[in-house]
Amino acid sequence: MSSAPHIDSVSRAAETPDERQPYAELGMKTDEYVRVKHILGRRPTSCELAIYSVMWSEHCSYKSSKVHLRQFGTKAPESDALLVGMGENAGVVDVGDGWAVTFKIESHNHPSYVEPYQGAATGVGGIVRDIMSMGARPVAVMDSLRFGPADAPDTRRVLPGVVAGIGGYGNSLGLPNIGGEVVFDESYLGNPLVNALCLGVLRKDQIKLATAPGPGNKVVLFGNRTGPDGIGGASVLASATFDEESQAKRPSVQVGDPFTEKVLIECCLELFAADVVVGIQDLGAAGVSCATTELAAKGTGGMDVRLDLVPLRDETLRPEEILMSESQERMMAVVTPEDVDRFMEICAKWDMPATVIGEVTDTGRLRMTWHGELIVDIPPGTAADEGPVYDRPYSRPLDQDELQRRDPAGLPRPDDLRAELLRLLGSPNLASKEWVTAQYDRYVRGNTVLATPADAGLLRIDEVMPGAEPSTRGVAISTDGNGRYTRLDPYAGAQLALAEAYRNVAAVGARPLAVTNCLNFGSPEDPEVMWQFAEAVRGLADACQTLGVPVTGGNVSFYNQTGSTAILPTPVVGVLGVIDDVTNRVRPGFTEEGATVLLLGETREEFGGSEWAHVAHGHLGGLPPAVDLAAERRLAELMAAAAAEGLLLASHDLSDGGLAIALAESCLTGRYGCRVTLPADPFVTLFSESTARMLVAVKPGAESRFAELAAGIAVTELGRTGGDALVIEDLFEISITELRETHTSTLPAIFD
Amino acid sequence: MARVIVDVMLKPEILDAQGQAIARALPRLGFTGVASVRQGKRFEVEIDGPADDAALAEVRKMAETLLANTVIEDFTLRVE
Amino acid sequence: MARVIVDVMLKPEILDAQGQAIARALPRLGFTGVASVRQGKRFEVEIDGPADDAALAEVRKMAETLLANTVIEDFTLRVE
Amino acid sequence: MSTARVGVITFPGSLDDRDAARAVRLAEARAVPLWHADPDLHGVDAVILPGGFSYGDYLRAGAIARFAPVMQELIPAARAGLPVLGICNGFQVLCESHLLPGALIRNENLHFGCHDQRLRVENTETAWTSEYSPGQEVVIPVKNGEGRYVADAATLSELEREGRVVARYLGVNPNGSMNDIAGVTNEAGNVVGLMPHPEHAIEELTGPGTDGLPFFTSVLKRLVNA
Ligand SMILES: Nc1ncnc2c1ncn2[C@@H]1O[C@H](COP(=O)(O)OP(=O)(O)O)[C@@H](O)[C@H]1O
Ligand SMILES: [Mg+2]
């Protein structure tokens, strides 16, 4: 290539110390740029600038959130289960019998707004590769989604594309989708949230880490070739460096290739099984820049890379663009020289392109060359770990007090409770999500014990990998988040998200063990948003400590706002639990007649941020329901004990829409109705959203044993299962047919 | 009545996984001499009136908003 | 180097659900005057040599065996 | 465990191959993995082509898999009477290979759909359905994006006349299949293609029931009696 004059080499950088560089256009602050110069003792080359600008971006460096996220570590509860904590691609939890699981949730919000299908698809692809890079087999996915009002025209553009993208990608990978959320609110209209979670399983002694130790070891890039994907931002770099003609417009979106990802999964697992991988890292945001700097920083400390060896889809790509490309379905591995042949053989079996592009060194420098010229020479840790850290100012929003004073207690209450129940049941947030979930494969791999509409997804982990020990265990997982609660009180709101996910996992009979989270907020440069963020993190960290479930990892998504209006602060929390004998799981739904229906926990008059206030009055104000972590914990212990003894026919946690919705859904899922009597004020009993509550149906004959176990918990006997209607004595009845019609027609009417 | 053909192809810089999968399969099937394959979509739009400028402008708008996803695809129009 | 275009459309007797869905959506988006829409596939096959008879015969075979399923689809070839 | 050996082919992009193998084991036969690139059936007594998206189904479902080396062995063997079951993507591959008539195209509603589906087993004479009773109603998951069975009028009436529709959708037709067809067989009854996934209905714990198991025990019985 005769392009030598265009290459901004290290020596050229040294000779032209004052050349103007487009650091500001790349999102870098002047002091950050000055710091890079200081680190290098000269101006960076354009390739080095590319690396620092992306590694020090909010997305990769967590510069605004780091000071707060530390609490997840400092407040972490003691846990024997945690094998790998925060700071790696994903946390790893010991689930017994020699097995471990890894899980993490990540956002792909903005790309999904720009191009819903591909944005959501590549969101799934990215989180799956994170899980693979821990040495695990990905075994399930979940998706937590937020959209503008269901009937808004733009929601009709975004939602079907997002759902098709998640299904199109996840289904093609053979990963069952075992749960998630779909929530509608005005605030997400220009900022939908697409958070994808992946769960992986591995043998406890086979954890892989993103590290490149051992000088002389080879660095292998494998998977799809590198193209100009997602490097819209790099074009400014191009304009400073390149001639006109190479400035062809670069796409800012990435497109997914799920077939290649599926083959990549199988290929990686075979590489792991053959034990030919020393360290491994997925290529996600910041692509080669991120993989090389992070691998080198965590390993022996040095790496030499020949960037011109990176296989390209588009031969006109420049080194800066290669460094920033976000082409999907790529991985980077560190392999000993003796194992390279075997490594390549396995890749060839799977038809997976693989190329040695460099070598681990002990120089403490990441060096890259382009056709023989040195274009990068940096200490990798300075890019990967020593990015800027901001303690951004925060302040309680001016309207917070007024918002909290706007108490829903004074809202007019309905006379016709039957109509009110149906109105809520058919409202977009509470209506059946089958239109969405039917587009996801929940059966593939044959280990799905519970999926939609169960409170938590549940997988049996037996026979996940060939030659594994038998195990009777199952892993349950749920994600939850409530932006309205969090808006009213971010500290409590994050705790309520955790409490709900924890309760959902308990509902199926599993013991909650560990937490992941995705924190979706507006701009961190807005002190009021920053306050929401700080409060949410503090609340979550405190609650995790109290409940004894450590945060193992997560993701922060800032700048979710349209103009100066931020989304509702939306921490999404995933809780993972274990059930020792998966056949003891408790199912949702009244599947038999004659079981005693009990309400566990206390109901108070709590309507702040409730679905009722939202649907009936478009009202948001007051305080969210009270958090009672001790009660959540007791409830979870009761559920685990009752499940283990096989006392329960059915269970369903109470959350949005309260008891009314829990009863209706239990009738719908199980095909039997029930006849119940309300103990107190019918309106409050039906629609309040008090926490730490569960609806259970106890098997005939097990009542007294259950009562023994439930000592210390408020238990209200409501009635019995049976019949083909939901009957509320002295008030009303609704046939299951009518419930179903109301519940299932809302989304199809909008999206078909 | 007239027929307008709208051809929609992925922008050249976007990964064409479909075309790539076909191109990779060809040698296995004994087809050699193919440098590359790209896969796109073809729409046949039958319009009620003649394919005059106004009608074509209408179809162009249709292509832009519905038939093609201009974030990742280019399209061309022709009257058949 | 030459480029051969292979257009593949469902046989007319097979219900084209994609085309119909588009046709149904058009009036909602304010497009009138469209009688029908059909959706098919378009392949751009770049061949190494010239598009002579032998090469075209090769591409035709490729279309018959791989690019189209002649049980349900028709195809046409043209050099661009 | 019987000594019958049932091969399960893995193509790149196959997804339900482990599920099919599990079903074979639960039916008490031995599951033998077969690899797309290995042109050898390793002497198996029957073959299952599992669900998934072979080669991503990027061109057309099953279009590329049909040309895999293992298919060059399988196609003549199936013509000679080897029992072959194609599930979902496997059904698509069998149609593309012309072992079964017709084709499977994009669902009428254009969505991928995953449902617990009611079906009626219409033909219990095939290698894979003899353990059902004629007209038996079962619930088995369907999940597909290109599951709409189509064939020309002559083929369709021939299939109906000869009783070669193996199973039909009851209630809502999930994909717009002609005549509610969920599965068909060849003339000899040894090759069966099925859109629903019986391998996902073999255990109470993980499926909507165990209605799918007889597909796998049927072939076993046939092999043991052979
Ligand atoms: N909200 C959070 N809570 C806990 N850990 C977090 C959070 N956000 C990010 N992290 C951790 O910071 C590290 C870097 O995150 P990220 O950049 O998303 O990982 P990756 O580089 O694998 O994509 C990870 O270990 C991640 O788990
Ligand atoms: Mg990662």
List the topology elements:
The complex is a heterotetramer, with one copy of chain A (752 residues), two copies of chain B (80 residues) and one copy of chain D (226 residues).
Chain A: H1 10-15, H2 30-40, H3 46-55, H4 58-61, H5 66-74, E1 82-84, E2 91-96, E3 99-107, H6 109-114, H7 116-132, E4 137-147, H8 153-173, E5 177-184, E6 193-203, E7 218-223, H9 235-241, H10 258-273, E8 279-282, H11 287-298, E9 302-306, H12 319-324, E10 330-335, H13 340-349, E11 354-361, E12 366-370, E13 373-378, H14 380-384, H15 400-405, H16 417-425, H17 434-437, E14 448-450, E15 457-460, E16 474-480, H18 483-488, H19 490-507, E17 511-520, H20 527-547, E18 551-557, E19 561-562, E20 565-566, E21 570-579, E22 596-600, H21 611-617, H22 629-644, E23 648-653, H23 658-670, E24 674-676, H24 682-687, E25 694-698, H25 703-709, E26 715-721, E27 725-728, E28 732-735, H26 736-751
Parallel strand pairs in A: 4-5, 9-12, 17-18, 24-27
Antiparallel strand pairs in A: 1-2, 2-3, 3-6, 4-6, 7-10, 7-11, 8-10, 9-11, 12-13, 14-15, 15-16, 16-21, 17-21, 19-20, 22-25, 22-26, 23-25, 24-26, 27-28
Chain B: E1 2-10, H1 17-28, E2 34-47, H2 53-67, E3 73-79
Antiparallel strand pairs in B: 1-2, 1-3
Chain D: E1 5-10, H1 17-26, E2 30-35, E3 46-49, H2 69-79, E4 84-87, H3 89-96, E5 103-105, E6 113-121, E7 137-144, E8 148-150, H4 153-161, E9 165-169, E10 181-185, E11 191-194, H5 213-225
Parallel strand pairs in D: 1-2, 1-3, 3-4, 4-11
Antiparallel strand pairs in D: 5-8, 6-7, 6-9, 9-10, 10-11
The complex binds adenosine-5'-diphosphate and magnesium ion.
Question: What this model shows, in words?
Answer:
Chain D: This is Phosphoribosylformylglycinamidine synthase subunit PurQ. Chain D: Pfam families: GATase_5. The complex is a heterotetramer, with one copy of chain A (752 residues), two copies of chain B (80 residues) and one copy of chain D (226 residues). Chain A has 752 residues and is of the alpha+beta class. Chain A has a domain at 587-752: PurM-like C-terminal domain (Phosphoribosyl-aminoimidazole Synthetase, Chain A, domain 2), CATH 3.90.650.10. Chain A is 36% helix and 22% strand. Chain B is of the alpha+beta class. Chain B is 34% helix and 38% strand. In chain B, strands 2-1-3 form a three-stranded antiparallel sheet. The N and C termini of chain B lie close together (11 Å). The mean pLDDT of chain B is 93. In chain D, the strands form two sheets. Chain D has a nine-stranded mixed sheet with strand order 2-1-3-4-11-10-9-6-7, sandwiched between helices. In chain D, strands 5-8 form a two-stranded antiparallel ribbon. In chain D, strand 3 (46-49), helix 2 (69-79) and strand 4 (84-87) form a beta-alpha-beta unit. The longest helix of chain D is centred in the C-terminal third of the chain and has 13 residues, at 213-225. Chain D is globular. Chain D starts with a strand and ends with a helix. The model of chain D has no long low-confidence stretch (mean pLDDT 95). Chains in contact: A-B, A-D, B-C, B-D, C-D. At the B-C interface, strand 1, helix 1, strand 2 and helix 2 of B face strand 1, helix 1, strand 2 and helix 2 of C. Strand 2 (34-47) of chain B pairs antiparallel with strand 2 (34-47) of chain C, so a sheet runs across the interface. The structure holds adenosine-5'-diphosphate (ADP) and magnesium ion. Magnesium ion binds at residues 89, 130, 133, 282, 284 of chain A.
